[in-house]
Design goal:
Blueprint: E1 5-11, H1 18-26, E2 33-39, H2 45-50, E3 57-61, H3 67-78, E4 83-86, E5 92-93, H4 97-107, E6 113-121, E7 127-131, H5 140-148, E8 160-163, H6 164-169, H7 182-192, E9 197-208, H8 218-229, H9 235-243, H10 249-262, H11 266-280, H12 283-297, H13 300-313, H14 318-332, H15 334-347, H16 352-363, H17 378-396
Parallel strand pairs: 1-2, 1-4, 2-3, 6-9
Antiparallel strand pairs: 4-8, 5-9, 6-7, 6-8
Helix pairs in contact: 9-10, 10-11, 10-12, 11-12, 12-13, 13-14, 14-15, 15-16
């Protein structure tokens, strides 16, 4: 196993963190890589990089403005590896990242892209949470659907190892039309091109969450996401996306309603979920309908009514209690809402939204609560069967995908 890997690191004024990022790359247990630094800085970053004496580091001044252009310059002009991956100047690799990803890529000869789990940290690298992923091996229809509703593969650029011949065969480059979410758009381009994806069930990337993250501007993120999803935005296309997944009929029903909401078709989503409730009382239809009334209409009374309808069937799901608390806070105030946030936190102590709301409710002042707009731990609803099938497949030594694909 000695395939060369190109690691692309775009940076602009990264003097605070770039040394740690580069050190994490140079500490990789797998040594056959080139680290391509594309620099547009006017701080101390050039001096920091030039102080390294490792022949694997290739330093270039960026020719054109913008991080998207930095990615594309590296792909067009400098990357020579059989595989390509990326790192931001403020994030870190675990020492085994390249080894584990390459081992998986070489075990499965048909795989074009390997991804892994992620450890989110604060600025001082204290762990916030670990984000797990499902294995979407030969499950592109599933991946397309869940990417559009907020699951799938997260923090995409640094989290992937891609065969460069696949990139070049399909002319894949980062889109200047979606500069904040360019790596998100890149995965959709890969899905559309028929890439085969494979998961490494380990947190191999440390993603640093801080005030300067581009993704912190949610309005810009949402603008870019809607531009990405516009290519699929037709009623029949959305139905097709949901129907072609491998999930159960009830899960497909939920996916389709969430796709309607995601692309701004609020009335269509509401009609869809009301029909699901009338037909067979799917409690998650009640959850998304109630949450939709809260988020998209500011109708807290109807939102609470639908959420309570779902809670009657799923009293152990913390999301319902948290979101009812949000409705109660808006209608009756903090004191009345506090027990619902406490109950949600009791049901699931690691539930970030409930913890956030409970702490602020205990302070007593009015605040804007965190409404939860999806089930916690996607795999509990959609992926648990796939995880079990994947474990059996791995244990058997089979290279065939799990399930009817």
């Amino acid at each position: 196993m000695n395939s060369p890997i190109s690691i692309i690191l775009p940076v602009r004024n990264g003097e605070k963190h770039i040394r740690a990022a580069m050190d994490s790359v140079l500490a990789q247990s797998y040594p056959h890589f080139e680290l391509i630094v594309i620099d547009a800085s006017d701080d101390a970053t050039p001096a920091i990089v030039s102080a390294y004496r490792d022949a694997r580091i290739k330093y270039f001044r960026q020719r054109s403005k913008g991080s998207v252009n930095a990615y594309n310059e590296a792909l067009d002009l400098y990357a020579r590896g059989e595989y390509v991956t990326f790192i931001h100047h403020d994030d870190l690799y675990r020492p085994e990242k390249l080894y584990e990803q390459l081992r998986m890529a070489e075990k499965f000869a048909d795989v074009d892209c390997v991804y892994n789990d992620i450890e989110f940290t604060d600025e001082d690298l204290r762990t916030i949470r670990v984000r797990g992923h499902e294995d979407y091996y030969h499950r592109n229809n599933d991946l397309l659907a869940v990417m559009m509703i907020g699951y799938g593969i997260s923090n995409l650029g640094m989290n992937v190892l891609i065969r460069r011949d696949f990139i070049e065969k399909h002319g894949l480059r980062y889109s200047t039309e979606t500069p904040i979410c360019c790596d998100h758009a890149y995965i959709f381009d890969m899905i559309d091109a028929g890439a085969v994806f494979k998961h490494v069930d380990k947190p191999l990337l440390r993603y640093r969450v801080h005030a300067d993250n581009y993704s912190g501007d949610r309005d810009l993120v949402e603008r870019d996401n809607l531009r990405i999803y516009a290519r699929y935005d037709a009623a029949e296309r959305l139905k097709e996306i949901a129907e072609r997944t491998n999930y159960s009929e009830r899960e497909k029903e939920i996916i389709l309603g969430k796709l309607y909401y995601r692309l701004g078709h609020t009335e269509r989503a509401e009609a869809h979920f009301r029909a699901a409730l009338a037909d067979h009382k799917n409690p998650w239809a009640a959850f998304y309908l109630g949450t939709g009334y809260y988020r998209h209409r500011g109708d807290f009374e109807n939102a609470e009514a639908y959420l309570r309808l779902g809670l009657a069937d799923l009293p152990y799901r913390a999301e319902f209690s948290n979101n009812i608390g949000c409705c109660v806070l808006q209608r009756e105030g903090v004191a009345a809402a506090k027990p619902y946030f406490a109950e949600a936190a009791r049901l699931m102590p690691g539930f970030y939204d409930a913890r956030h709301n409970r702490v602020r409710a205990e302070a007593g002042a009015r605040f804007n609560p965190r409404i939860t707009d999806r089930e916690i731990e996607h795999s509990e609803q959609f992926g648990i069967v796939w995880k079990a099938a994947e474990r059996k497949r791995e244990e058997s030594g089979s290279l065939q995908p799990a399930g009817n694909l």
